[in-house]
Structure formats: C-alpha cells, structure tokens
Amino acid sequence: MNFETIILEEKGHICLITLNRPDKLNALNATLLNELQKALQFCADSEKCRAIIITGSGPKAFAAGADIAQLHEQNAETGGDFARFGQAVFTSLEYMRKPVIAAVNGFALGGGCELALSCHMRFAAPGAKFGQPEVNLGIIPGYGGTQRLTKLVGSAKATELILTGNIINAEEAIRIGLVNNIFTAETLLEECMNIAELIATKAPLAISGSLAAIRSAIDCSTSEGMESEALHFGEICGTEDFKEGTLAFLEKRQANFKGL
Ligand code: COA
Questions:
Q1: What is the distance in A from the centroid of ligand 1 to the CA of 15?
Q2: Residue 231 parent element (H or E)
Q3: 189-198: per-residue pLDDT in tens?
Q4: By the 8 A CB rule, do 229 and 216 touch?
Q5: Does the CB atom of residue 107 touch ligand 1 within 6 A?
Q6: Contact yes or no for 244/255 (Cβ under 8 A)
Q7: Beta strand 6-11 pairing with 14-19
Q8: CA–centroid distance for 186 within its chain
Q9: Nearest CA to 122 among 110, 133, 113?
Q10: Cα separation, 96 vs 45, whole angstroms
Q11: Is 171 a catalytic residue?
C-alpha cells in the first residue's frame, strides 16, 4: 500500500509502520491519522500479519504531537470532533487483536505520547523523550492521554505530567512504568522485531485471546475480567492450535501452530 505520510512494510509475519514526516518530527496531521487507520485495518485483515511495530522516521522523533498548525485552526464547534477522530484511531489500535509495539526512537510528545500509550508495549531508545505538554499550548490532551496515562502510571504521576507539561527521559519513563525497556538507538528496531517475531511463533488465537482478556483487566471490574478470561479460555479450548500445542508437549516436539 502506498501512503503519503507513513510507510507500511511487511516483514514476514510482522508489519512495520513508520510515521514519515521527519521534517515535522512526524507530527500527526489529519492525513497521517487517516493513513494510520487504513494501515491498521490492513494489518487487522491480513492473514499473514501476527504483530505490528510502530516507529518514527528520522533520528529525532517518534511523533512530536498533533500537528500544531491544524490544532490552531480548531474552535469550540470543531474541537470535540478533532479529539474524537484521534481518539477513534488510537482506540482501534488499542483494541487490535494483534499485538502492537511502539518503538520510541525520539520525542513522543502530546499526541505522539498518546499514540505510544495506545500500543500494547513500549520500548525506547535512550534518547527518547515523553510528555504531555499540551498545557503549554493552552489546551489539554485530546487523543486519550488523560485516560490512558492515568491508567498506566497512576493518577498522581499522570496529573503531575499533564499539569506541568514536563518532559521526561527514557530512564524516568521506565521507572514510572511508561515503557517496558530501553535498547540502544542502533538496536531498538531489531530488538522490537525480535520480540514481535517471538510472539509470532505462538498460537495466534492464544495471543489475541490474551490481549482481549488483558483488555478486560483495564476496562472492567475484576469479576467481569475473570469472566472474560474464562470465556476466552473456553473458546480457545476449542481451537486446533490448543490441541496441537498440548499434544506437541506430550510428544516432546515443537508445536506447529496454524492460527486455527
Ligand atoms: N506540530 C507541527 N509541527 C511540529 C510539531 C508539531 N507538534 N513539532 C515539531 N514541528 C515542526 C516544527 O515546527 C519545525 O518545522 P519547521 O522546520 O518547518 O519550522 C520542525 O518540526 C522541527 O521542529 P523544531 O521545533 O525546529 O525542532 P527542535 O529540535 O528545536 O524542538 C521539540 C523539538 C519537540 C522540542 C519542538 O519541536 C516542540 O516543542 N514541538 C511541539 C511539541 C508539542 O507541544 N506537542 C504537543 C502537540 S499537541
């Protein structure tokens, strides 16, 4: 697929999406959000794709936020829908039944941080910078930051970051639980590929069931979450890959998963 503001590459079972406006630090304009949505739909529909990695092009940025030129045009009539559109794209990402990894290679600010927060895991280069600096622009986070950052790092830390607009480095991000791990800038993508490829060796329906049940831990009460886990567990007990995985163990051989 050809895009103007992103690059979508298929690398075996992994789809790599690169945000590609390096001269604007990969700022998220309407075209980019539309194209990201289309790319995600492609990944969701692809039988081959088992995991997705999102990164930014250029050495400086993952994404430096919503495009401030487009943001500036908003008013009381349009602002709500401006936020809702970004939220919808990021929510479809968050609810993907295939794992999405953010490879954060530089600035992840405002909408860029919110994009990383919508991914299932975040890995960062040592020079990555995270923050929700919207208050510096006289606005609040609008692509889910108030909700996802609060759920991920807790209300005290999220409130501090959102109200001060402070930017934190990768070490601090890992300390507060915002990122999973730090890899050198040179190996970040390769390490993320390794993690994605490892996941791609597992039974795809067990991966998507795990994602859905984990999602329930974020969205539901514990009892609802337990029921969701039991439902997915039961469903997966009916799959060919479950029989294959358990039989392969008993026969002391490698399982051959087919996604069925
Ligand atoms: N929207 C639109 N353009 C952006 C942008 C954004 N969020 N972030 C950076 N850019 C553009 C700059 O305007 C500049 O374009 P130009 O060369 O045509 O003037 C280009 O990207 C490079 O940015 P620049 O500011 O020159 O780089 P820097 O290294 O000096 O600073 C940042 C980097 C990230 C500190 C700075 O760009 C910044 O503060 N960006 C905005 C971050 C933000 O507030 N995000 C939240 C938005 S809701």
A1: 27
A2: helix 222-237
A3: 999 999 999 9
A4: yes
A5: yes
A6: yes
A7: antiparallel
A8: 21
A9: 113
A10: 11
A11: no
Nearest alpha-carbon partner for 132 in 123, 141, 144, 121: 141
Which 8-state DSSP code applies to residue 133? G
Ligand 1 in reach of 27 Cβ (< 6 A): yes
Strand order in the sheet with 107-109: 61-63, 107-109, 129-131, 167-169
Angle in degrees, CA 152, 155, 157, rounded to 5: 80
- Residue 94 CA to residue 120 CA, distance in Å, equals 7
DSSP state of 98: S
Kindly report, residue by residue over 107-153, the tens digit of the pLDDT.
Answer: 999 999 999 999 999 999 999 999 999 999 999 999 999 999 999 99
DSSP-assigned letter for residue 187: T
Whether the CB-CB separation of 26 and 58 falls below 8 Å is answered with yes
**The pTM of the whole model exceeds 0.85:** yes
Residue nearest to atom 4 of ligand 1 (CA): 24
Phi, psi at 15, each rounded to 5°: -105, 130
Q: What letter represents residue 154's amino acid?
A: G
CA 113 to ligand 1 center in whole angstroms? 14
Closest by CA to 22, choosing from 5, 39, 3, is: 5
Cβ neighbours around 222 below 10 Å, total? 9
The CA-atom distances, in angstroms, between 250 and each of 244, 247, 255 are 10, 5, 10
**Residue that is written with structure tokens 């001269």 in the block:** 23
Whole-angstrom distance, CA of residue 173 vs CA of residue 153: 9
Mark whether 251 is an active-site residue. Answer: no
User: What are the residue ranges of helices labelled H in 165-220?
Assistant: 170-175, 188-200, 204-219
Protein residue closest via CA to atom 1 of ligand 1: 67
Ligand 1 center–CA 226 separation, angstroms: 44
